[in-house]
Amino acid sequence: MQQLLKEIPEIMRVNNGLTLLEDEKEETCTENICFRQYRQLAHYFSLLCFLLTIVTLLLTLCLVQTTLVFRAQSTLQETKLRDLTHRLEKLNKSYHLLFSQYPALNQYCPVSNSTTAERKCSLCPAGWTPQGEKCFLFSQDRADWISTQYRCMTLGGAVATVRTEDEQVFLWKKAQSLSQGDSYWLGLRSSGAHGGWQWSDGSKVEKGPQFWEREPDSTADSRELCGRLTPGDNYRRSWFTSRCSNSLRSICERRQASLQ
Question: How far apart are the C-alpha atoms of 240 and 185, rounded to whole Å?
Fold first, then answer.
């Protein structure tokens, strides 16, 4: 019995030792698990840093490439701009030289803006009205038929002739809008007894449309008679005979400018 009592403390020390060993093993295992977890986290973090580095490099490369492309395009645009500016300067010089060498162009391209010296070009000179392939000028000055013809000739044309019904309607409406029943000389003139009527260019009136209010008497002496347009109510009956020495307003015509 006494021997058993002596062995009890030793047995307890052994059990305590075993417990301590088991605790140490558990602590060692816990430390190993934590270490493995830390290593995994370190690997993940390293991988994340690597990926971030790759993304940063790719973004840097894209930025550098974009910058290079932008600079190349800017250089190209600057070159094109200088080239266009040089061409514009040459065109402006040719433009001013053209008008200085050919002053007649000022009739067709008058300055429309005195501030910018901008010109507005037309197929007819300034003050003339386009119709078909002709330009017409309605003058409010009064003169006899011969003086009117000379004046129209100095302007590069002749007293107006009517070749089509459209021209007649245009002249009739324009005369109505400019005057209250006042008459305008046309290029109509009698060629004498039995000679009929002819236009200012020498062509026969009989070969085209006619819009007489009353057919002229071909048997009478009409050497001093010319034709006028009086804008009444009916454009088909608006031509009248009148003495060539009378003073009336006039209509001049000339061909439109050609770009050829």
Answer: 10
